[in-house]
Amino acid sequence: METPIVSVEWLHLNINDPDLIILDASLPSKVNDEIDNLGQIQIKNARYFNLKENFSDQTSVFPSTFPDKKQFETESRKLGINNKSKIIIYDNMGIYSSPRAWWMYKVMGHHNVAVLNGGLPEWIAKGYKTVPIQKPDTEKGNFTASIDRSQIKNYPYIKKNIELKQSLLIDARSSERYNGIAPDPRKGLKSGHIPNSINIPYTSVLKNGKIRNQRELIPIFEKIKHENPKALTFTCGSGITACIVLLASELVVNTKKSVYDGSWTEWATLEGLVN
What we know:
This protein is about 30% helix and about 15% strand.
């Protein structure tokens, strides 16, 4: 895939490509009241990418932890994904959880993958057809993962990075949570931010549920240029919205990127930042 983002018009034109796989990465829990009526419909032939269960390490004490290679490979094959598959990922919020799934496939060595800009709401807004949610009868795929662990950062790396400054840490949470003036949604954790990180709220890179265009993104990422970083590491509450800002950065910033998988939930817990 030449671009990390495709339009609903592109998907509509290419939907009958035999190598195309559409993944619905919507979260099962309600994040926004507006998506209630989208919880029972999908784009035809979409397969459900269960981010919270099948594609997360269930043994971890932290949410949405990246699974091991074997689990990811096995679950992808169950979805009928092959090494030659062209994967398009969407969610029912427009852009919310789909970038996390996109990033995971990139980490696992599958680069023929993109996010549907605007997701299910944009697909519906353009008048394209939907169907009731169903589990398609798919043949097992042959997907083979090749994990690039340099794209996944852990607590020891982030701790050392405060002094070493190998990566510029970008926090995708709201400015209120970043600045510690709004409570953290996870009970028992204080709000605030990791030292030497900068704040680019994920909402700032979105407009009407879609990733902003390149011209609009350039000034948002302007502060990064002044830092002249060797690499970027993205963080948030639990590693999901960090991927939204990472996705947007792909359009304007050409440098090595990674995600702090445990994000603020892990950092605040291990640093003893509890109420």
